[in-house]
What we know:
The protein is mostly helical. Helices cover 71% and strands 0% of the residues. It has three helices and no strands. The termini are far apart.
Amino acid sequence: PVAQILAGAMMLEHFREQAAADAVRTAVDDVVRGATVVTPDLGGTATTEQCAGAIADAIAGDRVARSGSG
């Protein structure tokens, strides 16, 4: 799912939504570097759904942190 999600970040950049694209890229980086919820092709055991969910959670967590609420 990582490549598809990064393709979405590229689409956001094309639409000049740089902040959103940056949030997606940061979330992907955080999840992949953490290596706890990655798919077998990246050396993990997570399913596609679990990996994508972890990335979505990271994006949502970033949004909460930036808004100052939680």
